[in-house]
Specification:
The chain is mainly alpha-helical. It has 2 domains: about 1-30; about 35-115, Cytochrome c-like domain (Cytochrome Bc1 Complex, Chain D, domain 2, Orthogonal Bundle). About 65% of the residues lie in helices and about 0% in strands. It has 7 helices and no strands.
């Protein structure tokens, strides 16, 4: 094998390994963007229901409000985001696991649920 080609291949392999290692170490491995609807389905629908009505077993047990109701929808986006971030009662806080952008995506989905009602 020609020395120049061998050096180029070695450098390319080293660069790829360094990039992948730094991505894992710094937690920056590329993740596909998850929509607010997908996050809601994964984390919220179990209690709040797929339509936000809270008509699930857990929703009834905890007497959850309909997320499409005027009482919930009159809350500002910042208030809803804060509630999702910090949690309330039995609802866990999602600030660390979701972060600001994903929480705002869920808030947008909550607005969409009200429009679909």
């Amino acid at each position: 094998m020609n020395t120049t080609l061998f050096r180029k291949l070695t450098l390319a392999a080293l660069a790829s390994t360094t990039f992948l290692a730094s991505s894992v170490v710094f937690g920056q491995a590329a993740k596909p963007a998850e929509s607010g609807a997908a996050i809601y389905k994964r984390l919220c629908a179990g209690c709040h229901g797929p339509d936000g009505a809270g008509a699930t077993t857990m929703g009834k047990m905890f007497k959850l409000r309909d997320l499409r109701s005027a009482d919930v929808q009159k809350m500002t986006n910042a208030q809803l985001a804060d509630l999702i971030a910090k949690g309330k009662g039995k609802m866990p806080a999602y600030e660390k696991s979701l972060g600001t952008d994903r929480i705002h995506a869920v808030v947008t989905h909550l607005r969409d649920l009200a429009k679909a009602k």
